[in-house]
Design goal:
- The chain is 76% helix and 1% strand.
- By secondary structure, the protein is an all-alpha fold.
- The longest helix is centred in the C-terminal third of the chain and has 34 residues, at 302-335.
- The protein is built from 18 helices and 2 strands.
- It has a single domain (12-445), classed as Orthogonal Bundle (Hydantoin permease), CATH 1.10.4160.10.
- It binds phenylalanine.
- Phenylalanine (PHE) binds next to helix 1, helix 2, helix 10 and helix 14.
Length: 449
């Protein structure tokens, strides 16, 4: 595809919906609560918020800057900005991370479809907490169903991506995101009025300083990167479709606020129920699937809300999987000169193969383990806690020290047509604060210092 005919977002709301759609996903509603549950509750939230402000926003804005100024996929963007230098490896790493994330993430997205189906056929009716636990473990440990749902979800993702930016990604996210927001609010109201809700809210909001540890901080950083979709070029890719008149600083801020808000709202929907029903908050990846069906049984109209919830969880996942697939598709089509159709087919087939193994992590493929993690866990840990922070580290270094202040200023001020008074603060963050914070957390979390 020639640069001149490049597809792009058609409206301001479309940009926010697509980028927030990428950021808001299973990371907020499924991953955030269980990681918080495993890492001491309130203290995790506090560290998380700090890291999002100090590191998350600078990385996101850096990605938008790189993307919009080059109009290229992550690999091509670095090639263009730093010809003949090894920076393109950062882009490459992002493409690899995209494959890995898509493979495990779409598996969980597949679980949401199974649960949507169960909600429709009254599959949770009358089940106790223990029975719901077993139901989830049994489903996830099976062979056929997790793979089938995964493949269906992969197909849906490819179907939207193949339609392009404006007529695919933007068109769907614009409708789906507002819908998601309303639903989560409804669930919150129900959750906080449950008897015993206060205990859950305390767990979420009251920091217990004794629970702080190097791992907690690394997990918070990893969760921040994962949730904001940063560190691997998703937002370089989306940034490359943002129009020249948009304010990148505002966009980054709005997307970050929306993402963080939804994560907190998801915590408010989940922890009161977890405590009200005596479930342990640290059960891990199954948390949402095991607890929410219990709440639905307790609420008037629960049948209806369960359907809507799992539908919306699938939707949140879908607006994220399309953004990850788009990274690979943009790379294939621009660098290998494939048509959008062939690029999508190739990318989704490759991910399809990897994902079949990830889907089997609790069943036929469970014997493959590393450091006590199954294949799914390996993909999750390596991407969120290693590849994304590493990518983010190089992205901020690049924008802070190598891209050139003039170029960065031109991009953030739309060639001098708008004020970007925050520029000095931004430069300070990307030059010093963010790289240092990432390096420290990273080395500390891995036990190197
Ligand atoms: N941010 C998404 C979520 O929270 C996941 C994601 C990670 C999407 C990385 C794109 C890139 O669900």
């Amino acid at each position: 595809m020639q640069t001149g005919q490049r597809d792009s977002f058609g409206s301001r709301f479309g940009v926010i919906a697509a980028a927030a759609g990428s950021a808001i996903g299973l990371g907020n509603i499924w991953r955030f609560p269980y990681v918080l549950g495993e890492n001491g509750g309130g203290i995790f939230l506090l560290i998380y918020l700090l890291l999002v402000a100090m590191v998350g926003i600078p990385v996101m804005l850096s990605e938008f800057t790189i993307g919009r100024s080059t109009q290229r996929n992550p690999y091509g963007a670095f090639r263009r900005l730093a010809p003949g230098q090894p920076w393109y490896l950062v882009g490459m790493m992002g493409i690899v991370a995209a494959f890995m994330i898509l493979a495990f993430y779409t598996v969980v997205a597949g679980w949401t479809l199974e649960y949507l189906y169960q909600a429709l056929v009254h599959g949770f009716r009358g089940l106790s907490s223990q029975q719901l636990n077993d139901m989830f473990d049994h489903f996830r440990g099976g062979t056929f169903r997790p793979i089938l749902w995964f493949l269906i979800f992969m197909f849906l993702t490819a179907w939207i991506v193949v339609a392009g930016i404006r007529n695919g990604i933007e068109k769907y996210t614009k409708v789906l995101m507002p819908f998601l927001f309303v639903l989560i609010l409804v669930l919150d109201v129900r959750a906080v009025t449950l008897p015993g809700a206060a205990e859950g809210l305390k767990f979420l909001f009251k920091p217990d300083l004794s629970k702080i540890s190097a791992e907690t901080i690394l997990e918070a950083l990893g969760q921040g990167f994962f949730s904001l979709s940063i560190g691997m070029g998703t937002l370089i890719t989306y940034g490359s479709y943002i129009g020249k008149q948009e304010r990148l600083g505002n966009t980054a801020l709005n997307v970050t606020i929306a993402d963080t808000l939804i994560a907190v709202l998801a915590g408010i929907a989940i922890f009161p129920a977890v405590f009200a029903f005596g479930i342990q908050p640290d059960v891990g990846t199954g948390l949402v699937f095991k607890t929410l069906p219990l709440i639905f049984q307790e609420m008037p109209g629960g049948y209806f809300f369960a359907i809507i919830f799992f539908l919306l969880l699938s939707i949140a996942a879908l607006t994220s999987t399309i953004s990850v697939l788009e990274v690979i598709v943009a790379f294939f089509s621009e660098e290998l000169h494939l048509t959008r159709r062939s690029a999508t087919l190739l990318a989704s087939s490759a991910v399809g193969v990897l994902g079949i193994f990830a889907a089997g992590s609790w069943g036929w493929f469970h014997k493959v383990e590393m450091l006590g993690q199954n294949f799914f866990g390996i993909l999750d840990f390596t991407t969120a806690n290693i590849l994304l922070p590493l990518g983010g580290f190089f992205i901020v270094l690049f924008v802070g020290w190598f891209m050139g202040t003039d170029r960065v200023r031109a991009e953030l001020s739309n060639d001098g047509t708008i004020r970007a008074a925050y520029l000095p603060v931004f430069l300070f963050l990307v030059r010093f604060v963010a790289p240092l914070a990432i390096a420290l957390v990273f080395m500390n979390g891995l036990g190197w210092i």
